[in-house]
Amino acid sequence: MDPNPINTGDTAWVLASAALVLLMTPGLAFFYGGMVRRKNVLGILMQCFMLMSIITIQWILFGYSLSFGDGGGLNKFIGGLGWFGLNGVGQDPSTSYGTTIPHVLFMAFQGMFAVITPALIIGSIAERMKFAGFVVFMLLWSTLVYDPICHMVWAVGGFLSTMGALDFAGGTVVHINAGVAGLVIAMMLGRRLGYENRGMSIHNMPFVVLGAGLLWFGWFGFNSGSALGANGLAAHAFVTTNIAAAAAGLSWALIEWKISGKPTMFGVVTGIVAGLVAITPAAGFVDAMGALAIGLSVSVICFLAVGYLKPKFGYDDSLDAFGVHGIGGLWGALMTGIFANPAVNSAGTGLLYGNPKQLYIQAVACLITIAYTAIATALIFWVVNMIVGMRVNQEDEVIGLDLSQHHERAYTIIE
Q1: What is the distance between the alpha carbons of residues 30 and 9, in angstroms, rounded to a whole number?
Q2: Is 184 inside a domain boundary?
Q3: Which of 67, 109, 268, 405 is the most buried (most CB within 10 A)?
Q4: How many domains does the chain have?
């Protein structure tokens, strides 16, 4: 009898989840694209779709092997090249990852995370990065930052995994990682021209709402799919994901209502995304009340980061990738250490259930991720900037990236 039989239900669900996660990157393109000025909207869409192309190729050639392969003496920190070009990654299940689905499907599902993580960084560097520098930087960043962090957190024998860090679907691997990288690049690129003197207005709010809706929809694959099976844990992650998103959207609206007298559509969708970010590491570990607490509280934290922290320090985190993803991911990772309920998942027990050490482990894992990502991102940026250049010149920035980098216009009708 085959010790690792393929379960058709699990396979069907993870196939669907992989497609849902892929849809999140076009959703992010609309979400970010609506926020920028109209002379830069195609630049955002182009960056997202280019990442869908280049990171997919990187992933199947060596990214997956570096992330989940056996790294020999360096296995705590990085995988090897044993699965280069998907050598040995076939239709039979892996003995270590997703043991009821084809190994090639686990690879594909994880590849969607590898695509959207660098795409999140775009929110911090919008409207001012040279496209050639963007392509080279993102390829290097995915290889030298994403792949090692992914290996340390999710691979068998990974450093943070063996430490006991909990990250169900990517709070550390995806959101803290991308958010911190975005902050570092934003500071090294400098602020957009005119940032000090005028607001950078949202050019298409319906695009933003459409993108948020696609992200919310795709996030069910992101979190529920991380159960790697059509099972009770997947159903539970689905429910906690929805609770946190709803609670955070409501919480952000109430904050705005109290402070400015009127809730805004932009505030609601920002809160929803913050809630989705925060529940990502916790979705398969916390119960419904834990998800509610995470969703309600993360909007407060991210609202402060976006509304007070950014103006105080003056960095141009263009679309608040750090303020929502970095801060929201950090909050979610720490809250996992508090609310992880062993009745939901025996793999995690948090502070409220008698294990204060878990909160300490979560904090250490966050600090290690922040330090590694910040240092490595800065070094990669410096090298690429020296060789290719990272910022467009002033004339191109004034014209807009759509024309200066891609010779296209998003809109041909002049109002």
Answers
A1: 32
A2: yes
A3: 67
A4: 1
